[in-house]
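quick one
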Amino acid sequence: MPSARHILIVNSRSVHQPLFVVGAPHSGAGLIGRALKATAGFHVTIGQPSVLRTVYAFARRPSMYQGRTQAAATVIRDAFAQGWQVTPSSCLECTRECRAAAGLAADGVGPCVELRGLETYGDASPDLIYCAEALTYAFPDARIVQVIRDGRDVVASMLADPVVMSWFRPSFVNVDTEFPNPFFGIESAEDRDLWPRLSAAGRCALRWRWSVRLAARLHHSLPAGQLKTIRYEHLLSKPDEALAELSRFAGTSIHAAEIRNEARASAARGRSRRPASSRSLSTEESTEIEKIAGEELRRLGYSS
Ligand SMILES: [Zn+2]
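structure w/ zinc ion:
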């Protein structure tokens, strides 16, 4: 069970109920992370080097941390203790996305947040999802926002993203040496046997499927007050409603101009499910996704 004995102090403040945003790539977690970052009193980091190093260590070599929950919790707390420090140059090494969300120029030096009035720490780094379970050990009072989106749209967007696709380079893939392999969504021997024969769409579908199975596990292990599930489709079709729910959960008022803009653009396109930054799936790809993740799609109501 998680230990509640550690109190993390950053900038002489104790970290209470930090807020983390997780989701499969292209599920909308970045959008929500940026909205939270722009919220008064919140210090949300996106891609601090110390955090990314830890996230990818967990993502690439989960076996290193298996069963070593206390050690893993310490590694995570140390990474955030460093990442959350507010200094005159705090955002300097962050991702461009983090600086932009803070209103800094692309080459801008921080701080990306006012120390005065700072009440809540959070993080929305890409691929943070691979640390989600370890986060709940490291911070037993953590609040987690998980973002869910139709797996077919997630796959279509992943296929159009060169960064996501570069993870499938043979030099990077470690499905033979690391098993099970959450990063590639490989959980069973059957998945591992199937993997070499899958198309890129099938491989993306495996990654999505793992994220929704993780979402179900979090749902069982965390009390309702510590976990909020947001559907990307709901966020774009009824932004006021979704943001009101998110605001209640976060205990603040989230304005989120960017989310409203996205919602308007998506309504203008007429189909909230097809953003411009994705490509359409072929029949073969759709069939493969259905074969791999059909059960999860249906369970989440994403059928037909
Ligand atoms: Zn930053």
